[in-house]
Amino acid sequence: MRSVSVFGATGSIGENTFDLLMRGGGPATYRTVALTGAKNIARLAEMARALRAEVAVTAVDALLPGLRTALAGSGTEAAAGAQAIAEAACRPADWVMSGIVGAAGLVPGMNALRQGATLALANKESLVTAGPLLLATAAAHGARILPVDSEHSAVFQALAGEDIRSVERVIITASGGPFRTWDIAQLAAATVKQAVAHPNWSMGQRISIDSASMFNKALELIETREYFGFAPAQIEVLVHPQSVVHALVGFIDGGVMAHMGAPDMRHAIGYALHWPDRTHIPVARLDLAKLGSLAFEEPDPERFPALRLAREVMETRGLAGCAFNAAKEVALDHFIAGGLRFLEMADVVEATLDHLSRGNSLGKAASTLEEVQMMDHLARKTAVEAVHTRQQSR
Ligand code: NAD
Ligand code: MG
């Protein structure tokens, strides 16, 4: 029986993963090792009961008694805290979903790879923060990373059976988010509620806002560079409002393979769950005649500066991705809390990168997780200062 763990089980990716595991037979098909969540312990306990998980872990220490109560009599162990999540990833499992949001997903993902697990990677922040280290860890332990981000799953599928050296370019698409047609003045006044309202995809709050600012696409550019190893100049972003074409791979003979499908993450998650096989997945079927036409346009780097910053990070590499992601997380926290305006998020990230590159510490590649964590910490501190500078200059 195949063993599985789901990190970030109670989130959007986690719910979709749970849906596929249950449809696939639940505990009759899968032996569930660990499920993790944060605040929503009622849902975590419900999932743990349904899948008969060995252990359920909440990221929030104070919620341990509540989780214990919710799991009473189920046979599932309860645990809490970041350390417990890291330890849960040390329990061997064949397939592990990395569905935590943010840099908090890195350590559990690394631990799962050290057990030789196949890591289904939704947590793009791990690749952005510590791509080379993650890939080296997988290689050292005979583990595999399968992309779950829809664009990267699409590229991965378009590359099946191809020689990677015959790839000329890769195009990842972006819906453009809710602000695709907004001008700078409108963007400057954009609210959290407006930013969360994604036109095509139903996702967690943080990635939805990142889609509106294109920080999500910025992370995905870096993710493409790190996961597949293409040069920055080979990777392009194309705005495609319908979110039907997820990515395109152009080959040296002029042929282009496009991956298409309904915007439903269960396709990419299911592909990673059953790879290298395919199985029936109940996502909506594409009806191109009904759609009639598909639109494409160039992204606007003026209104979406995150894309320009990502280009710089792709060139610098080293610890620049770690600093970029950490600063972006801080800026996002402040935007959600009401302390930063929408366009100021990019200002904070840019100021953080500028400040840290003056110390010349960004270009150096990290060889240990500790170095990554030190840069993450430093970049968060620098970003908080940049937020204060912004607020004081108003
Ligand atoms: P979400 O906010 O819906 O869920 C996040 C999950 O992580 C929850 O289970 C939450 O409890 C847990 N979590 C949050 N903070 C944590 C912490 N500090 N420590 C431990 N656990 C914590 O997010 P999501 O939309 O499911 O996204 C998850 C990841 O997948 C992100 O990296 C995102 O970029 C990526 N992704 C998501 C989608 C999507 O459709 N939602 C698509 C592509 C990639
Ligand atoms: Mg994506």
Q: What's the gist of this structure?
A:
The protein contains 17 helices and eleven strands. The chain is of the alpha/beta class and 394 residues long. α1 links the parallel β1 and β2 (30-37).
Outline the structure in words.
- The chain has 394 residues and is α/β, with parallel strands linked by helices.
- It is built from 17 helices and 11 strands.
- The strands form 2 sheets. It has a 7-stranded parallel beta sheet with strand order 4-3-2-1-5-6-7, with helices on both faces. Strands 9-8-10-11 form a 4-stranded mixed beta sheet, with helices on one face.
- Helix 1 links the parallel strand 1 and strand 2.
- It starts with a strand and ends with a helix.
- The model has no long low-confidence stretch (mean pLDDT 97).
- The protein binds nicotinamide-adenine-dinucleotide and magnesium ion.
Task: Show the helix and strand layout.
Blueprint: E1 2-7, H1 12-23, E2 30-37, H2 41-51, E3 55-58, H3 64-71, E4 77-80, H4 82-88, E5 95-98, H5 106-114, E6 118-121, H6 124-140, E7 144-147, H7 150-158, E8 167-174, H8 184-188, H9 192-196, H10 205-213, H11 215-228, E9 235-239, E10 245-251, E11 256-260, H12 265-274, H13 288-291, H14 306-316, H15 320-337, H16 344-358, H17 369-392
Helix pairs in contact: 1-12, 2-3, 5-6, 6-11, 6-15, 11-14, 15-16, 15-17, 16-17
